[in-house]
Structures are given as structure tokens and as C-alpha cells.
Amino acid sequence: MDLAFNDLLPHFKTVGSDLYTRGMVSVHGGNLSLKQGTSLCITRSGSRLGYLEESDLIVTGVDKDDENTRKASSELGVHRAIYTKTLSTAIVHSHPIHATALSFRSDKIFPQDEAGKIFIPTVPVIGFGSEPVPGGFAAEVAEALKTNAVVIVHKHGSFARGMTLEEAYVITELLEISCRILYMLEAMKR
To answer: What is the pLDDT of residues 1-57, one digit of tens each?
Structure first.
């Protein structure tokens, strides 16, 4: 691993484990990345976020391919687009169940709980009405993340940005809590 990224494994492991134990990724789902300068460190394609090892972290260029690029997550293009369009240095991509379920219904999600209203008042649903593909909607996700902390790709999952993995994780967790509340409110109307 690149020297600039040597001390990052504990951050990746903590966030990956939190996502997995809270049911926001399956065994091989989701991915994480951090940007430093013109390089980024991203989880390997097929890695298990709940059980990350050093070999699961791939260092490659933000704007150019190298020998490590083919090992990186299939969402590498989305991460690169986000880093190019925003000042963020961390990205968490997960598959939170309630948030993903709500992405089937509308092109925007409006949290109703206090924290959601303050920190993520509107969550765009990217590609609403289209079928998702790995690495798809990169430009749209990046554009939406210029003004939003988190977005959902229709039928797929969320991308949250931050300055640290922990910050992007907190936004991801807030999204899922807000969507769980929305889901429960809908159930109570029945």
C-alpha cells in the first residue's frame, strides 16, 4: 500500500464493520474510499466490508488508470467523479434497506425527523425510473453531491460524501434512520 495511505486501515475497518453489523451492506456489498492528493484508496472489488484486510485496499489515481485500477470496486468511476466535482475526501457507498426501498417510490426523499430535516432535508434519487448498473450515473451522482451530503441511486443504494470516512458514515446512518422513520410513518397510516 502507498505510504500516504499506510495508517488508514483502521478507519476502513471500523466503518466497514459498522455498515455490515447494522445491515447497510451485504457480505460483499458497498465500498469505501479516501482521497489524498491525486490518489485514492478504495476497497477492492468483492471485498467484505465487515472483515477488511490490508489487501482489500487498492490505491489508484483519481483521474488516471494504473495497474491497480482493475482490482478496484466496480463503483470506482462514481468515486472518481465525486472527487472531481466536490471537495470531499471520503465516500461511503452502501445499500441501506429502508432508504433503498423508498428510492423505488419517488425522485426525492424528504426526511421528517428533526436530525434528517437539519442535515439531509432533501435526498435526491438519481436515475429514478431507470435500471441501475454498477458504476452507472457517475456524472449525475457527482453533480448532486455538490449540494447534497448524500444521494440514493434508484433501486441500488446511497453515496455519502465527507472529509473522513466516519463523517460520510454518520450521514449514511442518518439517512437510514430517517428513512426507517418515514417507512414506519407510512405503515402507521394503513
So the answer is: 454 566 899 999 999 999 999 999 998 899 999 999 999 999 999 999 999 999 999
- The catalytic residue positions are 75
Amino acid letter for position 138: A
Number of domains in the chain: 1
CA distances from 170 to 52, 124, 138, 161, 189 (A): 19, 18, 22, 10, 29
pTM: 0.94
How many CA atoms lie less than 13 Å away from 158 in the CB half-sphere?
Answer: 34
Structural domain boundaries enclosing 41: 3-189
CATH code at position 119: 3.40.225.10
Asked if residue 147 lies in contact with residue 161, where contact means CB atoms within 8 angstroms, the answer is no
**Can you tell me which residue has the cell 465487515?**
50
Tell me if residue 34 falls in helix, strand or coil: strand
